[in-house]
Amino acid sequence: MELRHLKYFVTVAEELNFTKAASRLNMSQPPLSQQIKQLENSIGVKLLERSNRTVELTDAGRAFLEKAYKILIDIEKAREYTRKIYKGEKGQLSIGFTDSALYDLIPIIQSYQSVNTEVDITMHQMSTVDQLKALQEEEIHIGFICTPIQKSNLHIIPIRKQKFVAVLPKSHKLAQSDSPINIQELVDDTFIVTPRKVSPVYYDTVMSIFHKMSFVPKLTITAHISTAVIALVSSGLGIALIPSSMKNLQIASVVFKELDFSPTIETSVVWRFNEKSHIVNSIVTLLKQYIAENTSKHR
Questions:
Q1: Which helix (H) or strand (E) holds 193?
Q2: Which terminus of the chain has a smaller tally of CB atoms within 10 A, N or C?
Q3: Are 171 and 246 members of one domain?
Q4: What is the rounded CA–CA span in Å between residue 145 and residue 159?
Q5: DSSP secondary structure of 223-276
Q6: Would the pTM count as exceeding 0.70?
Q7: CATH number, residue 43
Q8: CA-CA distance, 183 to 213, in Å (whole number)?
Q9: 167 and 225 fall within a common domain
């Protein structure tokens, strides 16, 4: 029994007329009758009662018709599922992101999901270092990281550069100042930073700020994620320099202050050179469009 036998049988069962069924199938009646006989022989039971004027389903034919419908529907579902997988319209997408990349990631995910409703997205908040490892081990498909990085086996597209801002507790003496802060004014403060092994780009950028300003922090406390850094600031344990997108957190007990110079940190999207997933290709296409539109707006 072959798939075509099922299609032929269903058509004849629906029409109960070989001439009309043959017309629907764009074939002549004799070959259709022969195909139905082959089907009955392969099953070993009679499915249709034929006379000169009528065609009727046998009890076995009615039972087989129900199963034939189910088989054909399941096959069509399998075909559609496979097509969607191939086109990147269905499947799973795993994304890593740093704190500072979150607010670029949100509109991209919203736009992507509005079109690709059958793609399951899993998001993992991870440091740049952890994302690079996860990409290498194929635990995530795409990452939003701080750059530059030394990796030759990854596609890298810069998304944007962010200025650093100072985050202070509301009780800080400079919290109500209307002027940008000179970092020398913070010489007596404890700085909260992310360790270099967690975020080398962030750590090196902050340290270069201190170096350029001939500034040595009085004391530092380390915290592994930006939200923890801000939480420590809000509790009055110190101050921090963070990417400006973190101002979106809007924590009531801290204030974000501009600096009187403009150090920046770059956010980029990365994925493997050998990535073959059509889902990744589809979101990369959207990312390129998003970056182009935002670059145009900025200009």
A1: strand 190-193
A2: C
A3: yes
A4: 10
A5: -SSHHHHHHHHHTTS-BEEEEGGGGGG--TTEEEE-BSS--EEEEEEEEETT--
A6: no
A7: 1.10.10.10
A8: 8
A9: yes
pLDDT (tens, 9 = 90+) of the chain, 299 residues, equals 788 999 999 999 999 999 899 999 999 999 999 999 999 999 999 999 988 778 999 999 999 999 999 999 888 888 887 777 776 667 889 999 988 888 888 888 998 888 888 888 999 999 888 999 999 999 999 999 988 888 778 999 998 888 999 999 999 999 998 899 988 899 889 999 988 888 888 888 888 888 888 888 877 888 888 888 999 999 999 999 999 888 887 788 999 999 988 788 898 999 999 888 888 888 888 888 888 887 666 55
R_g over Cα of the chain: 32
Q: What are phi and psi of 224, to 5 degrees?
A: -80, -20
Q: How far is CA 204 from CA 96, 144, 151, 159, 238, in A?
A: 21, 18, 18, 20, 19
Query: How far is residue 264's CA from residue 161's CA, in Å, rounded to a whole number?
Result: 6
Task: Give how far Cα 75 sits from Cα of 3, 64, 257, Å.
Answer: 10, 16, 61
Got the DSSP string for 276-292? --HHHHHHHHHHHHHHH
Question: What is the total count of domains within the chain?
Answer: 3
CA-based end-to-end distance of the chain: 65
Given a contact cutoff of 8 angstroms between Cβ atoms, the answer to whether 264 and 163 are in contact is yes
Which residues span the domain enclosing 173? 161-264
| 3-state DSSP assignment of residue 43 | helix
152 plus 227 within the same structural domain: no
Q: Which tokens is 289 given?
A: 């469009």
Instruction: Say if residue 118 is in the same domain as residue 258.
Output: no
Do 187 and 276 share a domain, yes or no? no
